[in-house]
Amino acid sequence: MTPTLVRQHQPHAGPSPHVDLAARARDWSEIQERMLVPLHEAVYRRLDVGPGTRLLGLGCGSGLALLIAASRGASVTGVEPSSPERLALARERLFPESPVSRARADTRLVDQAPGAAVDGAARFTLVTAFEPIGCLAGDAEGLGDLLAAAVPLAERGAPVVLTGWGPPERCATSSVLRVAAKLADPLHGAGRPRPALRDDLEEVAQRAGLRPDGSGRVACPFGYADLDSAVRGLLSTGLFDAAIAATDQEQVDKEMAEALHPHRRPDGTVWMPNVFRYLIARTP
Fold it and tell me: Do residues 11 and 138 touch, judged by C-beta distance below 8 A?
């Protein structure tokens, strides 16, 4: 497949032109992405993901959630239209060169709109959006664009999983995210950090024409080997891009380190308990 990147509307202005996007994607893949594994596994257990599941992952990033589903026997398709660097890492994970570890023939990755993922008449039995919303103004609109293209590709009544940050008082990382909100230029509008709201996921589902059918909360602590790893991991989320654009990288790094200090343990590791929420909605 020759990649043809079709960038979706993004809720933030994007990283500074001086950011090494490949290094940031690697930090996401190696440091940050694993923090959400408890969320992925809880959803897969609840929906009994396994052989016979045809999963469409929206905003699949570097593919860890897809890899977990594939290990349960699911057929997986990932869509990552906003980060070619993350998608390249997903290809490394799901299409390894080792002859003893080949990807399933029904595994697909696309960097276009979800419609490019359709293969014949088979429709998806599950759609997931595991990149949590609720911390950036405008992020729900970006997810809505992807859902509008994805929902018609799913079977009638198929579950669509939306995920978001839990209440700020249940997320220790909220204290660090306030640094981004303080430093970001208020004129940025979309892309400026804001507290998660209780009905964020329900509102997205309603606008997409989906019927809510259950929800849950999952503990996803953020644990890092040291302060440097914590800063790199959190920067890789993109949640601090508006702050960097409004000030500079050095100031953001400094204030992040100060905000992380209360979460450092005597051995130098960083530990922040968090709760994430998921909503299961059904296609019409």
Answer: yes
Backbone angles phi, psi at 96, to 5 degrees: -65, 150
Side-chain-side CA neighbours of 146 within 13 Å: the count stands at: 32
User: At residue 45, what is the residue type?
Assistant: R
Q: What percent of the chain has pLDDT over 70?
A: 81
Domain positions in the chain are 21-175+188-223+274-282
For 223-269, the three-class secondary structure string (H helix, E strand, C coil) is EECCHHHHHHHHHCCCCCHHHHHHCCHHHHHHHHHHHHHHHECCCCC
Please give the DSSP secondary-structure letter assigned to residue 154: B
Which pLDDT does position 266 carry in this prediction? 97
Of the candidates 258, 280, 282, 262, the residue with the CA atom closest to the CA atom of residue 272: 262
pLDDT digits (tens, 9 = 90+) for 187-233: 555 555 565 566 889 999 999 999 999 999 999 999 999 999 999 99
Structure tokens at 185: 């230029």
The chain-wide mean pLDDT, for the chain, equals 86
Domain 21-175+188-223+274-282 has CATH 3.30.450.20: no
Alpha helices in 124-218 (DSSP H): 139-150, 174-183, 200-207
Report the pLDDT value the prediction gives residue 153, as an integer from 0 to 100: 94
C-alpha angle 56/57/58, rounded to 5°? 115
